[in-house]
Write a structure and sequence with these properties.
Aquaporin-like, Major intrinsic protein, 80% helix, transmembrane helix, membrane, 95 residues, 0% strand, mainly alpha, single chain, 5 helices, transmembrane
C-alpha cells in the first residue's frame, strides 16, 4: 500500500466523520454528490469506505448494507475488477 493511498484514506475518514456531524437532512444529498464527484476526481476507490461509514453514521444505511458495501470494496481491490464498484455506487445513490 503506497503512501498516497494511506493519506487519501485517512483524509476520507476524517471528512466522513465531519460530514456525519452535520444535519442529517442534508447529509444524504451531500454524500450522493460526493459519490459522483469522487468517481471522477480520484483515481482510487479509497474514498468509498469513508462514504459508507458516513451513511451508516447518519442512519441512511443499515449495518447489513454496510458489510455488503465493504465486501464489494474488498472484492474489487483483490480482483482489480471495478464493475462491482460502479454497481454499488449506483445502489447507494438510490437509497
Amino acid at each position: 500500500m503506497n503512501q498516497t493511498y494511506i493519506l487519501e484514506f485517512i483524509g476520507a475518514m476524517i471528512l466522513a466523520f465531519l460530514i456525519s456531524l452535520f444535519g442529517k437532512g442534508y447529509a444524504h444529498l451531500v454524500l450522493s454528490i460526493m459519490l459522483l464527484l469522487t468517481g471522477t476526481l480520484f483515481t482510487s476507490n479509497c474514498f468509498n469506505p469513508a462514504i459508507a461509514l458516513c451513511f451508516f453514521l447518519t442512519n441512511k444505511i443499515t449495518l447489513s448494507m454496510l458489510w455488503y458495501y465493504f465486501a464489494l470494496e474488498i472484492s474489487g481491490a483483490l480482483t482489480g475488477y471495478y464493475c462491482g464498484a460502479y454497481i454499488k455506487d449506483f445502489f447507494i445513490i438510490l437509497l
